[in-house]
Design goal:
Elements: E1 2-10, H1 27-37, E2 50-51, E3 60-70, H2 77-85, E4 90-98, E5 109-117, H3 125-132, E6 137-140, E7 154-157, E8 159-166, E9 175-183, H4 190-202, H5 208-216, E10 232-238, E11 246-247, H6 251-264, H7 269-282
Parallel strand pairs: 3-10
Antiparallel strand pairs: 1-3, 1-4, 2-3, 4-11, 5-9, 5-10, 6-7, 8-9
Helix pairs in contact: 3-4, 6-7
């Protein structure tokens, strides 16, 4: 058998999050079912299926990654999956042959983008950029994450970029503040809690010094809110030169499908538009 890494996108609509849950429709559950139905894998354990990132309910993805062992031909993989589950909100984008010990959890970088509605243009972008700078580098993020037993709260944040974006399709004139976060990995809810704090700074209700104190004193509880999951997109999981993804031959059809979803769901317009941009970059 060969080990394959699959890059895939999905909407959040109709899913109870990413990870498999008994009795609930999830992205991972539907994806692994499709892989079994198509005899790409026989079982999750036997074919060593692993996921690169597990997103919360309401979070979209343009470039999550999973890996599994299979005898299925690489070049036909994306097309077969898209014909089987493409209408259900999961789209295979690209695939690659990888080393036998490849684990998609061990990424060099994960990038998330958050869209925050700012139709009134009242958010102070400069203040938010100054606040975001406090998160750069290595910190104890106990006050900016949902902690899990056995996992260190210390994380390294490599890049944060904040800007503005306007609805790029005729049906929307919405204005958004955009937040791009890049790091090797993130804690549960870390991005959404960082956005919550940065937003308060943009509204003038919090200062960068408050964030600095919360990072420096993790033993003193601070809670600056949790941004809505529906504004978040997992843009990419990157492995550097270790993985060379080859776009599926039906990448154009995948883009057309996402465009049809865009027309139906104006509320998530920029989220899906972001996915299209990511797809164009992978062709």
């Amino acid at each position: 058998m060969n080990r394959i890494a699959l890059k895939f996108a999905y909407s959040a609509e109709g899913f109870f999050g990413y990870a498999r849950q008994t009795g609930l429709r999830t992205v991972e559950g539907e994806l692994t079912k499709a892989l079994r139905d198509l005899h790409i894998i026989e079982s999750i354990e036997g074919n060593r299926f692993r996921s690169g990132s597990r997103t919360d309910r309401g979070v979209w993805a343009a470039g999550n990654v999973c890996a599994f062992d299979t005898d299925f031909p690489l070049r036909g993989l994306c097309g077969a999956l898209n014909r089987h589950i493409g209408a259900n909100g999961i789209w295979a984008v690209a695939a690659a042959s990888v080393d036998a010990d490849f684990n998609p959890r061990h990424a060099r970088r994960r990038t998330y983008r958050y869209f925050l509605n700012d139709d009134s243009k009242t958010l102070d972008i400069d203040a938010m950029r100054g606040a975001a700078g406090e998160f750069l580098g290595e910190h104890d993020f106990s006050n900016f994450a949902r902690l899990e037993s056995g996992r260190t709260p210390v994380r390294q944040v490599d890049e944060i970029h904040i800007g503005r974006a306007a609805g790029g399709f005729p049906s929307s004139g919405n204005e958004y503040a955009t937040f791009d976060f890049s790091a090797p990995n993130f804690l549960w809810n870390q991005v959404r809690r960082m956005v919550g704090a940065i937003k308060l700074c943009g509204e003038g209700r919090l200062g960068a010094d408050d964030i600095r104190r919360a990072l420096s004193n993790p033993q003193e509880r601070s809670d600056y809110g949790l941004a809505d999951a529906r504004g978040l997109v997992l843009m990419d999981v990157d492995y550097g030169t270790e993985v060379s993804f080859e776009a599926g031959r039906d990448a154009g059809k995948v883009g057309d499908t996402i465009r049809s979803v865009i027309k139906k769901r104006e509320k998530e317009l920029l989220l899906l538009g972001s996915m299209l941009c990511a797809l164009r970059g992978k062709r």
